[in-house]
């Protein structure tokens, strides 16, 4: 699979917490000050985007607008990273169409307006499987993203001036992302996250070269800037392959604790990703360069 533009700079998106707990890696940031400090350190390590979930003091999900606003203000007081909050997936599913209410409310104030927000372009089972025991957990858990809801998200984000990150777990998701792009609901270049899964997570393409290549056969060149992550797996082990294929990288301990590396901090994982990028002869994109590459307007 050839890749032509080897001069393009690489965007590192730090995925710093997701819904990760601290039972394996104690460095997962939960509260606003922790998230902001982590973001600033990831910026120093080479990140240009930070993706985060607001959390309570016990690590449980938090979706209040004022909590997200506080986090965003604190991040922006410390660094110039592009801001990418979550929508909340299964933790905020009382009304899937209303899942974007927090993000669109934040967008009304230039000081708290996110630069990016995710749209998962399909519905998935979110069970986990323990191969050693043959046991399933969360076997009833489904993350629902109907197409009419996705259209609603895309239109609302366009009206709010927020760039969507189209999150794709499999080829069907990617085909739907392309249809959303063809329908004019998202501006080019679209920003696509190839969301692979490993370990106990079964839903996405596996976080291997074969899993990535099977996916990328359906990503048309020139219309997307795509990045890669692995939920439940070591992205650093696949990083060089993703770069060779033309992708960017979205590392962080929110997706995987990196026990084999001694449970590092987010900035240490970002630094390792940056070292891999430079080893391949590429350069890291600064936030303002990432903004231009993704077709984002300048900061307000």
User: Treating each run of at least 4 consecutive H or I residues as one helix, how many helices?
Assistant: 9
Give the % helix.
25-40%
Structural class based on helices, strands and sheet pairing: alpha/beta
Number of strands: 12
By CATH's scheme, which homologous superfamily applies?
Aldolase class I
- The top level CATH class name: Alpha Beta
Contiguous runs where pLDDT drops below 50 for at least 5 residues: none
* Architecture (CATH level 2) name: Alpha-Beta Barrel
Quaternary class = single chain
Gyration radius, to the nearest Å? 18 Å
The whole-number mean of residue pLDDT values reads: 94
Named CATH topology:
TIM Barrel
Q: Strands of the largest sheet, in order across it?
A: 4-9-10-11-12
Q: End-to-end distance, in Å? A: 39 Å
Number of domains: 1
DSSP strand (E) fraction? 15-25%
Largest sheet: 5 strands, parallel
Shape: globular
The topology string of helices and strands comes to: EHEHEHEEEEEHEHEHEHEHH
Can you walk through the features of this model?
The chain is an alpha/beta fold and 300 residues long. It has a single domain (13-293), classed as TIM Barrel (Alpha-Beta Barrel), CATH 3.20.20. Helices cover 32% and strands 17% of the residues. The chain has nine helices and twelve strands. The strands form four sheets. The chain has a five-stranded parallel β-sheet. A three-stranded parallel β-sheet has the order 1-2-3. A two-stranded antiparallel ribbon has the order 5-8. Strand 11 (224-231), helix 7 (239-244) and strand 12 (248-249) form a beta-alpha-beta unit. The protein is globular. The chain starts with 12 loop residues before the first strand and ends in a 7-residue tail after the last helix.
